Amino acid sequence: MHGLILRTLQIFTQDTYGYDTWSAIASEAGLENPDFEAMLHYDPAVLEAVLRAAETILNKPNEAFLEDVGTYLVSHPNCEGLRRLLRFGGVDFIEFLHSLDDLPDRARLAVADFTLPDVELRDHAGDSFELRLSGHLPGFGHVMVGLLRAMADDYGALALFEHCGAQGEVELITITLVETAYAEGRDFKLGAGTRVATTGSPV
Amino acid sequence: MTIPLAALHVFCPMHVALDRFGHIKQAGATLHKLGVPQLEGRRFLDVFEVYRPRAVDCMTQLLRTEGRKLHLRLRSGKRTSLKGHLVPDGTGGAAINLSFGIAVIDAVRDYALTSADFAPTDLAVEMLYLVEAKSAAMDASRRLNTRLQGAMLDAEERAFTDTLTGLRNRRAMDHVLTRLGRAEAPFALMHLDLDFFKQVNDTMGHAAGDYVLQNVARIMLDETRKDDTAARVGGDEFVIVMSNSVSCERLSDLAQRLIARISKPVLFDGRECRVSASVGISQSDGTHTDPATILEEADIALYAAKRAGRARFAFYQAGPAEITSMPQNAAAGE
Questions:
Q1: Which domain holds residue A49?
Q2: Among A175, B132, B222, B313, which residue has the least CB neighbours within 10 Å?
Q3: pLDDT tens profile B16-54
Q4: CA atoms within 13 A on the CB side of A33
Q5: Are residues B247 and B306 in the same domain?
Q6: CB pair distance less than 8 Å for B140 and A198
Q7: B143 contacts on A by Cβ (under 8 Å)
Q8: Rounded mean pLDDT of B309-334?
């Protein structure tokens, strides 16, 4: 289990609910050290323990918690670096959706030992798409739903996302694009961020 | 097959087409963003300087670069450097395709370029992605390294510390002596051994003994300077290493003050603990600096002090007969 994933959950919780809440989750999960290192590896069981503990302490289903994590990754100022990296995927939201196939490869380019589930986008009639995520990373689909929602906002597109559950290790997300240029969207300059650093959040 | 000039606009947004006089006939859209007011109609070599291959200053020479990589820079503004590649058009003119090469990172910032300014097959955007991704990842690694370095320093600190008294330990003393020996620097060494410590331990228990040791450590820290090393090197044995040369008077003063303060009884659980200390002193002038020898000499002096009675100190002098021992009235130390 890559530390980036666990570190993300930690930073999200700290930035959203405060350090005390994170400490409570960490102790509920039985962690000896509440601070994860983004560049180290952990036992996969740690993720499951943290998710269970988050559900208990926050009194919130994991699906909603993980969606919030996805949104946070794009929209929180502390994650500006990651938002920029995602925006490199395409000049508009459709191009961005098509770039998702490359997401695991792009992640690996940035951090060589970081493996994400396979991502495959299928085009359906009109403006509907289906995103298939396959690989063992519990909750990844819900993070993606939150992340895609925030990216649609970022591009100024109007789209609907639905998590259609998991079959074995495959998760399905359906995407209905209503309008690509619905709102202004956020600014993205190619050359603005070479010195941007993420605060321990994923790249 | 010839590619129509119009197609170049689509495929190569950074191309120029030159007529046979070396004047720019057309230039791609991205080149128009580089802050050069007018491109069409101007002499190519007036706008761009070719600095490799050398001595390219007319169209004839430019045409001879066919098949070679051109290194160019803008003559005006930011003097952005570019890579180029020339193909003759068969009628005396030529087409040159340009790219920013490694300068792309500065160029996109300097000229506010967007993805649309690069051909879809151009890897410029991927390169920008990679630069940002890598610097973020490097940043995370650097932070981790800093934290690990901090943890390592803490661990080293602990490994050099006597946990009971907070003084340095034997390892730390060895380390300091080796360093001084290597530097051939003069230093003085005091070997201090508690008298009657065993009795305190035996009659009042280990807690009382520990308390006495901690009290001795406090006195030693109090009486020594920041640059001195005060270490507990055994059960009730201590060493003070003082770098730089120290006069015999100062050493005698220090030894007397240490003995006097250590000899003052301390209260533990309402009961008096009485110990005193014997001190052996040796000095190195920086020429004979073998740490083991200096330590041994301090040891010889210490035993001489012990033999002469408790609560005394002695300097080592070459030849056992010359060891002097100065009586010290423990009770009247203050």
A1: 3-60
A2: B222
A3: 999 999 999 999 999 999 999 999 999 999 999 999 999
A4: 6
A5: yes
A6: yes
A7: 200
A8: 60
